[in-house]
Amino acid sequence: MWIHLTLLAVTLAVLWVRKRYSYWKERGIPYSEPSFPVGNIPGMGRTEHFSTLMQRCYKDLKRKGPIGGIFFFINPVALAMDLDLIKTVLVKDFQYFHDRSAYYNEKDDPLSAHLFAIEGNKWRNLRNKLTPTFSSGKMKMMFPTIIGVADEFLKLMKTEVSKNNEIEMKEILARFTTDVIGNCAFGLECNSLHNPEAEFRRMGRKIFAVPKGRLLKVFIAQQFRSMARSLRIAITDKEVSDFFMAAVKDTVKYREENKIERNDFMSLLLKLKNAEPSDDCTAHNIDPMTVEEIAAQAFVFFLAGFETSSTALSYCLYELAQNTDLQNKARKCVADAIKKHSSMTYEAMQDMPYIDQCINESLRKYPPVPNLTRTVSKDYKLPISDVVLQQGSTLIVPVYAIQHDPEYYPDPERYDPDRFAPDQVAKRNPYTFLPFGEGPRICIGMRFGMMQARVGLAYLMKDFRFTLSTKTPVPLKISPRSPILASEGGLWLKVEQL
């Protein structure tokens, strides 16, 4: 009896999995053949980074049509490869694709309920509230704070070079961006430049030091969000969560009791907490934010701001260290801007076109967020066929794969900042370059991220020369466990003060 029931259960399970894996075939969409139980993501987090898995699927499917089908475990996922379709998804028909497939749990993991992850009207309302924080006017107001940190960064670099001409730059750059974000998001002197074990830096390392199994836990939570919430799964490390919640509560209390205002992110969040008008928006229809909501936004600003910018700078230095001519050109660009504007002013920073080209080419070759993920919010008929993407299904835009496609970027593994000269950019479809996303859900902190990267690179080019160390592998190995496109290990470079 039990044997028969077991055989029946196994048979039904096998038939159900086969039915799931025939999802794309039944709809006439070309697909990559999956393997049970992982689908099309074998080795993810263990031997291969998610970006290269998606690149393999992209190469397999691109010649077969504008959209392809893949599977995450047993869940069907659409892979958008046609640039016009990508524009439609991200911009024209955004109302069908306004949510990311990011897991959050407001009740059990309040820091996860931030702008990047939340959905629907709640996201839209919060986005509208936070957008004034990242206006060009606000960037200009925050600029002196960033320069203050950059001056400390320069002192540290000179001290390090005087002791040893081989420096591990990845960690130093992360300490620089941590102090920038700590100052601008929390109004706190993090001091990680001069103390590598400062609490903010230690927490930053902990966020991105993904232990075995955690990446899989996060990925499974994203694939089965309702079940994960019912199981009260939290994806933020408890020590990290407790630290940031306490830091925000202490900052809020101190500022409100002492009536302190600064030109930073926290000041706007405090206005939103108390439903007060700011310079850029009125109090009309503003619902007060809770301290937990404030903490979540400050957390994601820190999370997204320090690691992505330091990673982009690391890759940029790595490439310039291998190309002396390009490095000299970048250095001349900085010197010309300083000469023209008399010092390292905000206007000088805006007038360094080749520095921007170097950063953009780094973001092209090594996009920190290598894929854009969207949830289909209601049934959507593809404009290019009769296929309907069902509500609740997932669609991916493979940014890394597109930005390494030789059709758009000949010899894509070569680092060439001239790809981003104005005349070259004008010739290219803008949807071939998506490191910040596009459309209404484009990265809200794009201006800030570019500004701190520009300041960091300009300071380094102005005073130092970089070449490769024998400790640095060529090419760099991408860490398979990192949620962003980060290199394995450090970035050792030979550094000479000019």
Q: How would you explain this protein's 3D organization?
A:
The protein is α+β, with helices and mostly antiparallel strands and 498 residues long. The protein has helices spanning 2-21, 23-26, 50-61, 83-92, 120-130, 136-163, 169-186, 199-208, 214-223, 225-230, 238-258, 265-273, 291-322, 324-341, 346-349, 353-365, 399-403, 422-427, 446-463; strands at residues 67-72, 75-80, 166-168, 372-375, 380-381, 388-389, 394-397, 464-468, 492-497. Strands 1-2-7-4 form a four-stranded mixed beta sheet. It has a three-stranded antiparallel beta sheet with strand order 3-9-8. A two-stranded antiparallel sheet has the order 5-6. α6 (136-163) packs parallel to α19 and α11 packs across α13 (291-322). The longest helix has 32 residues, at 291-322. The mean pLDDT is 89.
